[in-house]
Hints:
The protein is α+β, with helices and mostly antiparallel strands. The protein has helices spanning 5-13, 149-155, 204-214, 245-257, and strands spanning 60-62, 65-67, 77-85, 106-108, 116-122, 128-135, 143-148, 163-170, 194-201, 222-229, 232-242, 264-267. The protein folds into two domains: 5-170, RlpA-like domain (Barwin-like endoglucanases, Beta Barrel); 194-267, 2-Layer Sandwich (Alpha-Beta Plaits), CATH 3.30.70.1070. The chain has a six-stranded mixed barrel with strand order 3-7-4-6-5-8. Strands 10-11-9-12 form a four-stranded antiparallel sheet, with helices on one face. Strands 1-2 form a two-stranded antiparallel ribbon.
Amino acid sequence: MRKSLPILLALFLAACSGVHKKGGYFEDDGPPKRASVDIASIDDAVPRAEPLSEYGNRPYVVHGRAYYPLKDANGYKERGIASWYGKKFHGRRTSSGEPYDMYAMTAAHKTLPLPSYVQVQNLKNGRSVIVRVNDRGPFIDNRIIDLSFSAATKLGIVGTGTGIVQVAVVGAGTTEFSEPTPAPSGRTHAPLRLYLQLGAFTNHENADNLRSRLRPAQLGPIFITSEAQGSVRMFRVRVGPLASVAESDRLVQRAMEYGIADAHIVIE
């Protein structure tokens, strides 16, 4: 029997309703008590040409926000926060109609075509994996990708619940992927910096007005950056650098209380 996209999303949205107080995985979720397979022996996903999911690539709405899946993901690359999901959803149907397997090298993404393949690199330790995107999400806390338990384990983010990553699309038949950035060590690597971006404008006065309006929010020192993009100069209103992902989550919620619905994390 065919499932409509709303039904598939409803099955997954339970995974997006809250976060475990002590980690980054969802309420009542987490790792298995004892893994039934040797995670180290699980190979990365191998990119291959596949037909797109009939229902998983339609526009959809979650928590009042509309999402429009990409028709072509060539060249997609983004830095942000990764989370993961595990035993609670093992065997449940994904947005592409396939059962979720926490031991497979898969992931969920809000707009990438289903299925597609991405290289995910942990920017703190340099570890890198290839996963197959076959689900929608995550829809909370400024996360850009939700990894399977196995993928999260290989990247070293199961314990912390989240990780700072770079996600880049790879295609079928690809034999050469982005060269992983060496893991930070000593003084030869600059530390990653997290910022909360509150808005971006082509007019400095608008950026300054937003900064003034948000001063009572007590988000921390708010500053404006300026950068030329072709013939346009962009003025970005930011807070940071931030000490942790947990701090960014707190500030995102605080910004939402002041009407900033699109605050997001920027990693430099």
